Amino acid sequence: MYLSASNIKKMSRVKRLNIINSVSGVKPGNLIGTKDQNSQTNLAIISSVVHLGSNPPYLGFILRPDQNVRRHTYENILENGLFTINHITSNLIEQAHYTSAKFEKNISEFKKCGFTEEYIEDFSTPFVKESKLKMGLIHEESVTIKSSGTLMVIGRILHLIVPDTALSEEGHIDLNIADSVGISGLNSYYALDKIGQFPFARVDIEKKPN
Amino acid sequence: MYLSASNIKKMSRVKRLNIINSVSGVKPGNLIGTKDQNSQTNLAIISSVVHLGSNPPYLGFILRPDQNVRRHTYENILENGLFTINHITSNLIEQAHYTSAKFEKNISEFKKCGFTEEYIEDFSTPFVKESKLKMGLIHEESVTIKSSGTLMVIGRILHLIVPDTALSEEGHIDLNIADSVGISGLNSYYALDKIGQFPFARVDIEKKPN
């Protein structure tokens, strides 16, 4: 099916949201944990985490400032500068999806959605105990994206927890063994099945096309 | 396994690249097609495409300005303002990976890696014929991310091609039927297996935790 910009503009809002949220391809399923100055915790599902750099290790994610749910997440990050990113595993998808409901600020999605807060030394913001691959980050920068009216929130990794069984000697993480999930659109969840791994690509090694 | 910022800093460069490029979770596998003023085409694998907005429909991707391969992509985008994003399907992963080799600017990865240029009316930049889900975009904005020394390149979707069989009435795209792949780290490829789809989450429908 072919759709022009004009076809997309004329669609119903819900259909357009579903399609355009899917066309980037699979998105990583993560939960962002935060805490405010009054120790009120918050947990939000985010499918826009993106790698920005390895040394120092930077990740970013996208927020819409007008979105009620994620606004609490960003307010908390501005208050104490810390957040956690926790991979969603396949047994957690329904609970994780439920964090996207519009809970009031004085309600913690940890409790409401059946997740357990987990803390490590010298880091005041909660991790998700049920998650297997998780990170604690410090907020470094927020960048405004004018065209789309969105914000990229950038953090530097201070703490990284990876399941031993998913990590190879060379540092490859097997997302199938880690049981991390992908997301399509706003509400579909995918398990990951490894189908190939290739060496660093070099010009001099010609590949035969299929 | 627990790794602190200091542990990560002290790792070998290659191990750090492998780990930190994996911790964001699964990444969408896409090929970016471009063309310069002399009709020289270019094709680059990019795993950082991210959804930014649905109305108008915006996508972004991350570039490192110092990276030789993707530099040609960005130079071409600056020359004529257009690029295509083409989902990688499972039978294309080896060829797609090979586009990351450092080809000279006068070499087209389309030809070298066994892909076919495909054109539609009123859009001068090539799509990947072998890809099933693809978009033609116009460059809207580039945003500098200071902390990580990277650039986010933002485009607006002008043309969208989706396989009929993968698109539902409500606009959901099934990435398993579209055969779109995910990427972990720098060189691992994953097929997607749908495990759940949930309605829009509401506060008043309490979910039972697992």
| Number of individual domains of chain A | 1
Would you report the number of β strands of chain A? 13
Low-confidence stretches of chain A: none
Provide the structure class of chain A: alpha+beta
Number of helices of chain A: 5
Q: For this entry, what is the oligomeric state of its chains? A: homodimer
- What is the CATH homology-level superfamily of chain A? Electron Transport, Fmn-binding Protein, Chain A
The first-level CATH class name of chain A: Mainly Beta
Largest contact between chains: A-B, 121 and 121 residues
Question: What is the average per-residue confidence, as pLDDT of chain A, rounded to a whole number?
Answer: 94
Tell me the major beta sheet of chain A: 7 strands, antiparallel
What's the CATH architecture of chain A? Roll
Distance between the termini of chain A: 25 Å
The Cα radius of gyration of chain A reads 19 Å
Order of helices and strands of chain A: EHHEEEEEHEHHEEEEEE
Strand order, sheet with most strands of chain A: 4-3-7-10-11-6-5
Percent range of helical residues of chain A: 10-25%
Instruction: Sum up the overall morphology of chain A in one term.
Output: globular
As for the CATH topology of chain A, it is Pnp Oxidase, Chain A
Strand content of chain A: 35-45%
